[in-house]
Design brief:
Distance between the termini: 73 Å
Helix content: over 70%
Structural class: alpha+beta
Number of helices: 19
Radius of gyration: 38 Å
Number of strands: 7
Order of helices and strands: HHHHHHHHHHHHHEHHEEHEEHEEHH
Length: 631
């Protein structure tokens, strides 16, 4: 009885522990993964918006122009970004200390963004007021000078002229006039009683505008410097790191629970096997000799057959695993394409959106001007009492048109709209080129053998892999005059992508990748891809072409990239030459025939046939083509 109770208690404890491990091993909700990825996107967008805002304000200040509504819209978007990120941060699970650290990082980021957006709005308002005062001095100064000369105030007119010229010069970034001299001229005009008697109020307003320009310029410059030094990028990186750390900790906790669950399940299985073994021990001991002899005689052939089936099944599983790993390597390349395209289209889409809003505003202003002109020319003399009334109405309408021409600066507005449209067309051209390159690159296995422009294929590969390369290396190209070759274009593109990606990953810090193409002889072309990365040690040079061999950390590579490259090149009756020196870099040279033999092309020597038996043969093709069409 006591033994039975102990066994029941142990069984209940084992089931409770199993239930606890099952609960802990559950995968994180999809919203957590989406939130983590979206946090990175939002932080990148906020950093890019801040950099664009700073550049816009500095450019408008340098050009002595009003920053416009685009800068104000960017500042408002910066102010709104912390609230969007706050909701995403709340989705990330974690312990008390992790949540506290994540909250501190978010509070620092939110405070910095609030400070930056507030300071940006102040700069926009200050620059608008500064430009308004500058326009007042530029437009009203000549009128005041003319009035002074009409009332014989020549000295005051000369001082006013110097003040206008000096103030306009002072407003430039590379001003040569001294501020003290301008303040002396303002004081002289203010003390001139004759000016005040003949032109009451006008000169005072003009002097106040000049005074505000002198007082405001240092303040705006100081605020621009302060805004540029705001650590938005640093705080965004800290928040991204904290969020990623908490997210990875949550993922690791689930993986640890799953590992413990596996160990626990094995332990339970061993315990149950041991119990079963003990229960059958007596029976095996009594009938051991006779049962073993009879069993061996009766089941020998069956056991041999079962063993053969097990070995065949193991071989089949090994082949399926190999094909799945090959498929995974292909999908890894496609994932690199998707990540690069997602990042590269973000910047053109951002300024296309901003330009569309600004062009709409300019077109609205031009429409108002056209409507006013149309109303002026729609006047009918028959609707007026006499010709003088018609002339008066027509003159008033023309004055309205002239007023818009003088005060709305329509020429500059039209030029700005044309510039914005030109920039938008260039951005659309970049997106079109990127989408077409991805579409061409993604045509996997559509034409097993066809004509291929090697130089063009390299350019498309570099465009697709630009996001991987641009932060790691500068690319230098030395293309020779090559004929088109017969090959499987998609597979050769895969070769180029794998080699270029490996070259970028081999570079620590920032380096250089040199691509050279030339005719090796009358029947072959040679493509060399060289890097100044870490190089390949001599002891592993003979192993790098072997399947599943990799120097990367566990979980970051399949070891099939270079193996697939070598198989594709040998299937094209070509050759892959590798020269490397540790610490200096590596050179991968691909030699391909210009014409293929008539019996056909089998680039992967059976791997493609196995691939079709396991997965859909055009899985990565359809995914990449769909992405290209969506872009």
């Amino acid at each position: 009885m006591k033994r039975t109770a102990i066994s029941a208690i142990l069984a209940v404890a084992a089931l409770a522990m199993l239930a606890a491990l099952v609960l802990r091993s559950r995968s994180l909700p999809l919203t957590v993964h989406i939130a983590e990825n979206t946090i990175g996107t939002e932080l990148d967008r906020a950093t890019e918006d801040f950099a664009t805002l700073v550049a816009t304000l500095q450019a408008s200040w340098t050009a002595t122009q009003a920053p416009g509504e685009g800068a104000r819209a960017l500042s408002e978007r910066l102010a709104a970004s912390p609230e969007r990120i706050r909701r995403l941060v709340a989705e990330i699970p974690g312990g008390g200390s992790q949540r506290a650290r994540l909250k501190n990082s978010y509070d620092g980021f939110a405070g910095t963004m609030k400070e930056a957006s507030s300071l940006a709005r102040e700069i926009v308002d200050d620059e608008n007021a500064y430009i308004a005062d500058l326009d007042f001095v530029r437009n009203e100064g000549p009128k005041i000078i003319q009035q002074m000369r009409e009332v014989k105030l020549d000295a005051a007119a000369a001082n006013t002229f110097q003040l206008v010229i000096g103030t306009l010069d002072f407003a430039k970034p590379d001003a040569t006039v001294r501020e003290l001299e301008l303040r002396r001229l303002i004081t002289t005009l203010a003390r001139d009683n004759r000016v005040d008697a003949n032109m009451p109020g006008e000169v005072a307003q003009f002097a106040q505008a000049a005074q505000r320009i002198l007082d405001t310029k240092p303040s705006i410059q100081s605020k621009l410097t302060q805004l540029a030094g705001t650590p938005v990028s640093t705080m965004a990186s800290a928040l991204a790191f904290a969020s990623g750390d908490v997210y990875r900790s949550a993922v690791a906790s689930g993986e640890q629970a799953r590992l413990m669950l596996s160990i626990y399940a094995v332990a339970l299985l061993v315990a149950m096997s041991f119990v079963a073994f003990r229960l059958q021990a007596s029976y095996r001991e009594i009938n051991r000799a006779n049962a073993q002899l009879a069993g061996l005689n009766e089941s020998l052939e069956q056991r041999v057959e079962e063993r053969t089936q097990e070995l065949a099944g193991a071989l089949t599983n090994l082949k399926e695993s190999q094909v799945q790993l090959v498929q995974a390597e292909k999908m890894s390349s496609l994932g690199q394409l998707v990540a690069g395209i997602s990042h590269e289209i973000n910047t053109p889409l951002l300024y296309l959106s901003n330009n569309a809003v600004l062009i709409q505003e300019r077109v609205h202003l031009m429409r108002k001007f056209v409507d006013r002109c149309a109303r002026a020319f729609e006047l009918n003399p028959a609707d007026c009492k006499d010709r003088s009334e018609f002339q008066a109405q027509f003159v008033n309408a023309l004055k309205g048109v002239k007023h818009m021409l003088q005060h709305e600066d329509l020429a500059a507005t039209m030029q700005e709209a044309m510039d914005l449209a030109r920039d938008s067309i260039e951005g659309l051209g970049d997106l079109t080129e990127m989408a077409q390159s991805l579409k061409d690159f993604s045509r996997l296995d559509r034409a097993p053998v066809g004509s291929f422009d090697v130089n063009g294929g390299l350019d498309k590969t570099l465009l697709i892999a630009r996001n991987i390369i641009k932060h790691k290396a500068d690319v230098r190209k030395f293309y020779g005059d090559l004929p088109e070759i017969e090959c499987s274009p998609s597979q050769i593109n895969q070769v180029f992508l794998n080699i270029v990606t490996n070259a970028a990953q081999a570079i620590e810090g920032h380096g250089e990748i040199v691509i050279t193409t030339k005719l090796r002889d009358a029947d072959h072309v040679a493509i060399s891809i060289a890097d100044n990365g870490c190089g390949i040690p001599a002891e592993i040079m003979d192993k790098i072409r072997d399947p599943f061999f990799t120097t990367k950390e566990v979980g970051t590579g399949t070891g099939l990239g270079l193996s697939i490259v070598d198989e594709i090149i040998r299937g094209h009756k070509g050759e892959l030459l590798i020269n490397s020196e540790v610490g200096k870099g590596s050179v991968f040279t691909v030699v391909l025939p210009i014409k293929q033999v008539k019996e056909g092309l089998d680039p992967l020597e059976g791997l493609e046939a196995q691939d079709e038996s396991v997965t859909a043969p055009a899985l990565e093709d359809d995914a990449a083509e769909a992405l290209a069409e969506a872009v």
